[in-house]
Amino acid sequence: MQTESEMPTGENAVDKGKLKISVTSEITAYPVEDALISISYTGVPENTLEEVRTDRSGMTESVELSTPPLEYSLDPENVIQPYSEYTLNISAPGFEPVSISGTELLPDVTALQNIRLRPVVPETQEQVFVIPAHTLYGEYPPKIAEDEIKPMNESGEIVLSRVVIPEYIVVHDGSPRDSTAQNYYVKYKDYIKNVASSEIYATWPKDAIRANVLAIMSFTLNRVYTEWYRNKGYDFTITSSTAFDHKWIPERNIYDTISEVVDELYGNYLSRPNVRQPILTQYCDGSRVQCPGWMTQWGAKSLGDQGYSAIEILRYFYGDNMYINTAPEISGIPSSWPGYTLENGSSGQKVLQMQEQLNVIAGAYPAIPKIQADGIYGPATAEAVRTFQEVFGLPQTGTVDFRTWYKISEIYVGVSRIAELV
Question: 314: buried, middle or exposed (CB in 10 Å: 19+, 13-18, 0-12)?
Fold first, then answer.
């Protein structure tokens, strides 16, 4: 007899979540127009619920789909699966088809499924991805405890001279000694969004999400800064094993609430006084596994419910001498954010650079109007920025703040392939 949690997703659903799909070319990073996506329950893949197509920006409209009740993802005692699972079949002329089974939808948030299609080659086969259970619902090994600050006096060590936000990290999709596991080159920001979406629920309070994201980023940057695995003879930065690092899942969807927080914070990490390296901020779920001295994910959610800020949550678990620090350098970005919002009336080199990048992006995304690159932020520039923000899911302010600046840089690097020339 099927239990409620095993029944096809949607049969017991009472709430709604949204799904938005973005399709780009793996080779050019350009959007794929008119890609066809069929959506079905993962438990009933032959029964198509919705069919949607991408627009000229490679985006679908948001599709509203059934989910379990909101309270399931807010209660640590709940044992019923709090998200629904959908199967997506994606096809587009000239590209290999892709199937993703297990896209997770939560109520009251938007699931963002980013898909990169490969051009067709002889004897091509459909790519199939199966997304495993969320770590708060499935069974995963708990973190093996480590020192949060790594000794820096070992002979032959490799360490960076300062904290740098990397453009890419290499993720080993398995435990460190599993030589059969594949290595993936993943954009750092995408890695953080993936892990956070795999390990906490996007329905939680914003500051609980911020605290968890900061812990994930600081842990990851400690692995980068200390070259932890490379010092042990491995050729990767971090693993997808929860016993050693974080859960990262190829091709899984992320969520708008988590994506916004990562975009807001991704230049940051956690530090303690007189310690140069980012802190290896370890944590556990706090429901099935306890970890004194570490943050618990459900505990962070509870404190967020009580109005604690992100730093207050982190200090509650890690102590009062924990601080949020900002890395002095972000790799892979042509130029850093000027430190203030660009808006109507702004002028100068930063405006000119942003305009030039927007025009390159407009070559790939024709919904964005091309503008005169003159270093003067006028109404036409504001309208182009507003359209860019609409295409990429940012608040449509028409001004260039931290999030918009780095999103423009990210998309510009992708479509211009400048990263390969640097």
Answer: buried
